[in-house]
Amino acid sequence: MSARLAEAGVARRSILKFCAGVVATLALPPQLAPQVAAALDRIDRPAVVWLEFQDCAGDSEAFVRSRNPSVADLILGMISLDYHETLMAAAGADAEDARDKAVARGGHLVVVEGSVPTGIPGSCTVGGRSAEEILRSAARGAAGIINAGTCSAFGGIPAAGPNPTGAVRVEDVVGGVEVVNLTGCPVNADNLTATIVHYLTFGQFPARDGFGRPLFAYGQRIHDTCARRGHFDAGQFAQSWGDDGHRRGWCLYRLGCKGPATFHNCPSVRYNGGTSWPVAAGHGCVGCSEPGFWDTMSPFYDRLPHVATRDFSLTADRIGLGVLAATATGFAAHGAGKVIQHRVAASHATTDIQDIQDIQDAAEPAEPAGPADDRGGQAT
After folding, report:
1. Distance between CA atoms of 276 and 274, rounded to whole angstroms?
2. Would you call 308 helix, strand, or coil by DSSP?
3. Is the pLDDT of residue 374 over 60?
4. For the ranges 9-13, 55-59, 135-139, 237-241, which has the lowest average pLDDT?
5. From CA 123, how far away is CA 6, in angstroms rounded?
6. How far apart are CA 184 and CA 196, in angstroms?
7. Distance CA 309, CA 119 (A)
8. Phi-psi bin for 212: left (phi > 0), alpha (psi -120 to 50), beta?
9. Kind of pairing between the strands at 80-84 and 129-130
10. pLDDT by residue (tens digit) across 200-248?
11. Could you give the percent of the chain with pLDDT greater than 90?
């Protein structure tokens, strides 16, 4: 790989810097960076077939707008991108032939962007073939499937009610192939690159949670690492868009931020070459990396759930024992039916700390959502 990249004008220092960045993203010890570089030098480039179905093309857009040195250049040096409708030079029958030849050799990686329509198959056809038919064909003999974005992983926005096309996730169509879900709208290019490098270095996908998402990227709530967390603990909340608290970077929970119920590494990795991410730009998280987010996290500008807060001036310890514990219970209960939301809506703006504790005690425990729940109560 290093020889090919050197021919393309990429310096060895840039390659090592890239490897160090990938190791950091994967939450691995920094001393593994040379091992990653050595492993990438030894590998033969695996064939990658990138399929795009019902989506907005945002994942491809994120992929080509990654860090400098360009991840696109580095990825093209590590893999053989044999099929990508947007990026490949070939078109028409030549493009379809390149895809079919890569699949026929076997051992390839399939990257899927977008959900699969099963109710109206004709709503997404490529070369006269339905998305479902193309996916089943491409998955045969594949070493693994990487779902890039929430649409392919969970169905995403196309699968939201009323779901007119019968959109489903990739795993509802194919089985028997190892799958890793890189959720988000769009996928973070750094997480995609890190996952591919992990596979090339260790011969397997990273450890995953109960939803098939790599723990290095989805092992913590956004709320836990958010730069605005200190304002939450101090009871400092923006009350409306553009008010003094909003301008000063206070917590956006009251404006609908779903960070306490969302697992993703957005605060640390960020987007557009590490430039920024929605909360840093002043907009609350909408929970786009979670299953069924369009239905379960809306309305996006309303608190989820309706656990009232006040303009606290308390220590972080007291908040942790009172408000934070209550909201954590509320988030889990919401996923099982928005129990908390309906019980406390009437006291939306007047509940004090003791009231919140009473709400917590009265809340019915949520049903476990699977293996992911042992990290803090994430609900399906």
Report:
1. 6
2. coil
3. no
4. 9-13
5. 44
6. 17
7. 44
8. left
9. unpaired
10. 888 899 999 999 999 999 999 999 999 999 999 999 999 999 999 999 9
11. 54
Residue 333 is encoded by which pair of tokens?
A: 């209960």
On the CB side of 252, how many CA atoms lie within 13 Å of its CA?
Answer: 25
Q: Cβ distance 189 to 66 under 8 Å?
A: yes
The neighbour count for residue 330, using CB atoms within 10 Å, is: 28
CA distance linking residue 79 with residue 148, whole number of Å: 16
Q: What integer pLDDT is reported at residue 76 of this predicted model? A: 67
How many CA atoms within 13 Å lie on the side-chain side of 101?
10
Owner of token pair 């409306």: 240
User: pLDDT for 157-216, tens place per residue?
Assistant: 999 999 999 999 999 999 999 999 999 999 998 899 889 888 888 889 999 999 999 999
Report which of 327, 344, 321, 307 is spatially closest to residue 221, judged by C-alpha positions. 327
- Show Cβ contacts of residue 209 under 8 Å, excluding neighbours closer than 6 positions: 215, 218, 219, 263, 371, 372, 375
The β-bridge partners of 145 are 110, 179
Three-state DSSP class for residue 180: strand
Alpha carbon distance 142, 109 (integer Å): 6
Beta-bridge mates of residue 192: none
pLDDT at 36: 76
Asked if residue 316 lies in contact with residue 288, where contact means CB atoms within 8 angstroms, the answer is: no
Q: Determine the average pLDDT of the residues in 323-340.
A: 46
Question: What is the number of H-type helices and E-type strands within the chain?
Answer: 19, 9
Q: What are the structure tokens assigned to 302, written together?
A: 């309303």
| Residue 63, pLDDT score | 86
Distance, in Å, from the CA atom of 215 to the CA atom of 4, rounded to the nearest integer, reads: 32
